[in-house]
Each structure stands twice: as structure tokens, then as C-alpha cells.
Amino acid sequence: MAWYDEDSFLTRGLGPYLSTILITALIAFTLPVFLHFFIFRAKTPTSLPTFLVIGPSGSGKTSLVTLFEKGAPSPTHLSQSPLSVRVSLPSTTKAASSKYRSENDPTLKLEKPLLLVDTPGHGKLRHFGLEHLNATPNLKGIIYVVDAASIPSSSTGSSSESGLADAAEYLHDILLVLQKRYTTAKSSKGPKDVPVLIAANKLDLFTALPAPLLKTSLEKEISRVRETRAKGLLTAGSGDADADDRGWLGEGGESKFEFRQMEEVNVPVQVVGGNVLGSEGPDVDKWWDWIGSKL
């Protein structure tokens, strides 16, 4: 039977037959429903833009996550495992993707969900945070929370009695993982950037170190950390290893470490102050603005 015969499948499929009309109407009405339930509804939480919340114990990570989730901080306890929380960008914060949209665009009023992954800060549990750096889908950035009230100025000398050494060591390890992620990439373009926000928390306290001084103190302490670890490896017999094999963070040579060096490996670092608690309430608008700029 040829395709142009009256009883052929193609002729009946394009002809004015009742069966053809019913099948066409059925497809027209069911296809949008199918797309809605099996594509839009099938999105899992892991498809959402994700931010890792990392930092030493007591820095205020969990309090920050609960504040972002509920709008108010609540009592917390020591985290022992990662916790993923879905939050929404505040209506007062504009996402970067909406920068050029009209104020009358109805999509601006739609909820912009994202995931915050709170990771433990205890020394024995930090492997959770380090593992998430390469295993988190749709990672948009890292929020490294630091207790600015526990870190002295770099001009005060030794940091053995403060949280500076602990904060710098953990931050060093995080940045080193991100650096190796770039240097070991097989693609010539390298992986996409992973911005880091150093959230200087508890700036409402009189003893808190301002964000610019916190930045300087962390850079100086990270320089000490990488030099100490390099000397340890040299003592262990790796004197012929190059800077990358030793796990040298930032530029090699005798230059001191600066956060700007991380931009060469697609890891821009920014230090921004704020506070989760305080007598006058939370001050986290700048942190929300940073998150919005990455969406």
C-alpha cells in the first residue's frame, strides 16, 4: 500500500477523520501536563544553587543558617554532620540574573530558592566540609564564617591564645583544595569559579576585629601556615618536590600570601563584616547581597 492511498496510515493521519481529531486533541492537552509533572516537578533539591557554610566551631555558622531559614536566630548545638537547608532570597535582595529586568517584571516577585549546607567546624569533623567542596552539584560559593571577636590584630604578635591560628589553618585547607581543583582540571578552560565570602561575624562586639584588619591578619597567618607545612615536608625528605607537590597555596617564592592571588585559580575571596546576633538585631544584609550577586 502506497503512502498516498486513501487507507494508508499517513493519509488517515493527515485527513479529516474523527480518530485523527481525537488523537490530536489528546496530545495537545496531555503534553503540557506531562512536561509540568515530569520535568518541572522532577527537580530535586540538588538542582538548586548551593552555598557551603564552613568555618571553625563557635563562629556562628548554624546560627547564620537558622537566621536565613527562619528570619530569626535560634539556639543551636554543636553540629556533627552536614545539614542542608532550603532558604529563599529576601525580596529586598536582587539576584544578579535579575539585574537588567524591569521593576514591573512579575518574575521578580517569584521565590528564588537556594540551598545552604551547614558543615561541622570541629577539627575531627572538618573532612565533611572538605569533601563537599568537590562533591556538591551546582556549587555557587562558599561562606566561611569567622568569629571576628576571637581574632586579634596582626600587630599584636602571637596568635596562640586566639582563634586566629585555627581559622587560618582551616581556611588554608579549603583554599588549597579549590586551588588543586583548578590546577588539576583536564579542560583547558578550567572549572568554573568558586567565590569565597569570609563572613566576619560578631562585629557588634567591642572586641571584634574590623573586616579590613581581619583580612590582613588571616593573610599573615596563612603565610605562616604554608611555610610551617612546607618545612615539615622538607624535613620528611621531600626537598626535591615542587611547590604544587608540597601543597603551596598561592604564589610560590618568598612572597607573602594575599587573597588576591586566588583569583588566578578562579577563587575570588571577599571579606565582609556583619553579625547574626546583637542588641540591635542581626546585620546580614551585605551577606545576602553577596549571595544574590552569585545567583
Q: What does this entry look like structurally?
A:
- With 295 residues, the chain is α/β, with parallel strands linked by helices.
- It folds into two domains: 9-40, no CATH class; 48-293, Rossmann fold (3-Layer(aba) Sandwich), CATH 3.40.50.300.
- The protein has seven helices and six strands.
- It has helices at residues 9-14, 18-40, 61-70, 127-135, 164-183, 211-235, 285-293; strands spanning 50-54, 83-88, 113-118, 139-147, 196-201, 269-273.
- The chain has a six-stranded mixed β-sheet, sandwiched between helices.
- Helix 4 (127-135) packs parallel to helix 5 and helix 5 (164-183) packs across helix 6.
- The chain is elongated, with a radius of gyration of 26 Å.
Provide keyphrases for this structure.
295 residues; alpha/beta; 2 domains; 6-stranded mixed β-sheet; 6 strands
